[in-house]
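Lab notebook, bench 4. Continuing the backlog of folding jobs that were queued last week. Each job is logged with the same field layout so the records can be merged later without manual cleanup. Today's entry covers B12-binding domain-containing radical SAM protein, a 531-residue chain. Filled in by technician R.K.

JOB TYPE: sequence-to-structure
TARGET: B12-binding domain-containing radical SAM protein
LENGTH: 531
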Amino acid sequence: MDRREAAGPRESRRILCVCPRYTSSFGMFEHAYPLTDGVRALMPPQGLLVIAAALPPGWEVRFVDENIRPATHEEFQWAEAVFVTGMHAQRRQIESICHRAHMFDRTAILGGSSVSACPENYPEFDYLHVGELGDATEELFARLARDPGRPERQVVLTTVDRRDLTDFPLPAYELAELPRYLTGSIQYSSGCPYNCEFCDIPALYGRNPRLKTPEQVTAELDKLLACGMTGPVYFVDDNFIGNRRAVRELLPALVDWQKARGYPFIFSCEATLNIAKRPEILELMREAMFETVFCGIETPEPEALEAISKDHNMMVPLLEAVETLNRYGLEVVSGIILGLDTDSPQTGRRVLDFIESSRIPMLTINLLQALPRTPLWDRLQKEGRLIDDENRESNVDFVMPYDQVLTMWRDCMERAFSPAAVLSRYRHQLDHTYPNRMKVPFRERHVPWRDVVRGLKILRAVLWEVGVKADYRGEFWKVARTCLRRGQIEHLIRIGIMAHHLVLSGRDAVEGRQKASHYSARPQEMPVPAE
Ligand code: B12
Ligand code: SF4
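JOB STATUS: finished
OUTPUT FIELD FOLLOWS
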């Protein structure tokens, strides 16, 4: 029997899927959006699009991403049940969708990473779906098929038997307004073999990465392309090289797919820094047109890496690893954590020195936040060092004085993202990383006319908003002139919008407009949109 038919009686149901707004934070690239032609969010929510595709046949589904526009009264009225997803950082916005669903007496159902880690945080939802797509999802569909109404008390369904990734449906990309996203999203694997102290991935998604087949991934790419997506596509995998043997099988399929279709996509992914030890993987990534890799470097201090069980970052000296990736045309994006137990008053200076020497342009610098279902949470709880105070920037009672950690964070943000620092790091990438990328002649590339028009509009916005109006335009032109002289318009556009975001985010941090920990669910100034 088809798995989708196993859900129960074939009653047709009307499901409204709603993705909550993100909390305003550095990693959302919000300052970049006004320079684009209508981008409103970073990437489509893969989890909700997979669930939408897994609904039993005949069920009607609508999808709204509230980062793009709010769900309307008419949509809530239309639905029999409202499906919501989300991370801890979106908690208040998740709750708001539940309230609105209940205003119309609609059944509210929550899944995703936040509820999977902390079901107790969401007492108001009618159903909680804990864990990945699996037996809980089938039970949910069967119950809704029998009765879509609100149950008398909350029902919590927990996946014990996860659905094999090879059995995942193609995400329902057709429901999303793809041009409104900065990048597309795709998933190849789930889970990570490491066990970093602060990370909840091993507990939520497992330590043995589960995988899709290369054929499935290329079919998803075909679907993304058919739905009108071109340009950047992000692999949402926790660690792209979690299973190195498998990735060596996937990459040749990606290379062939890209070649056959004229390289419509530019890929990025998240991977551990020890990827630098695998030149054969890096070469294939270059050929498949991977251009950016997010690596959780976390800290340049070796004793700190050891203390947070991230010693795999030390397999290759940090600077050497970054340089190696750059040699394959890969720009590194890095996460940095301040507030670790090993931090000293010198840590901020060391972080800044590392940023300067590695020339990594884009870094998310966060204060440590303890997430539930992590070894860090368990340790701090035992030590009595978890602080539940929404007015603080972190729930961790740091070893160093709180104000000193916060000052160190602000100082790092200010210096790392000063216009001169940001643009000189991009200048380095322009000379030492980008020339190492695959060069495909323009006529051999699949670039729809609409993308050319879009590129020109963004170029105009960059030149006007940054090149003419910004107070740091002098620094911008030092790099922009070189790009123009070399005819590197794509680089000019990318550097223009990203540098703008980094510079403005640094200023937000210094002027207190940005949170120091993007992981918490502290209520945020950003309101939930009214209809
Ligand atoms: C891509 C990604 C992002 C993207 C896009 C997120 C998105 N909406 O797609 C962006 C860049 C926006 C992002 C941002 C952040 N992220 Co993020 N992100 C991820 C990542 C790497 C992949 C997400 C994904 O697509 N997974 C694949 C899908 C298929 O899995 P899934 O979403 O869990 O969905 C499955 C189930 O949960 C379930 N499901 C999901 N939704 C629903 C709904 C219903 C109704 C049902 C029945 C089932 C269901 O079915 C799906 C299939 O199995 C995850 C790690 C991970 N493994 O998930 C981190 C992760 C979700 N992010 C995390 C964090 C901390 C953040 C940030 C705070 C980072 C930062 N420093 O700013 C911000 C927060 C955003 C904000 N400021 O509001 C944490 C969340 C911790 C938590 N438990 O809430 C994670 C788990 C990583 C981690 N441990 O650090 N992130
Ligand atoms: S390597 Fe990354 S995904 Fe894996 S446990 Fe560490 S922080 Fe989490």
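OBSERVATION: Residues 58 and 350 are 58 Å apart (CA to CA).
SIGNED: R.K.
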